[in-house]
Automatic annotation (TrEMBL):
Residues 51-74 are annotated as: Disordered. It comes from Chromohalobacter marismortui. This is UPF0434 protein C8E00_101430. Pfam families: Trm112p. GO terms for cellular component: cytosol.
């Protein structure tokens, strides 16, 4: 995903910053707990299309059982 585009995008609900999860192809708002899909490098910034994140994701913790050490950096 283009870094300039990512810098301009904000959460449509709270206007907060988003983190790009390259592995899942999502832009995440940790404040609202929403994960917006990115389809073919195009962010889908509709709340109806967003996935509700679980508690560990909201706290920006690695997913259990995957050995993942994702830190949110792109």
């Amino acid at each position: 995903m283009d870094k300039q585009m990512l810098a301009m995008l904000v959460c449509p609900r709270c206007q907060g910053k988003l983190k790009y999860d390259r592995e899942r192809g999502e832009l995440k708002c940790l404040f609202d707990g929403l994960a917006f899909p990115v389809d073919d490098e195009i962010p889908v910034m509709l709340e109806e299309q967003a996935r509700q994140m679980d508690v560990d994701e909201k706290l920006d913790k690695p997913r259990r059982g995957t050995g993942e050490t994702w830190d949110g950096a792109s």
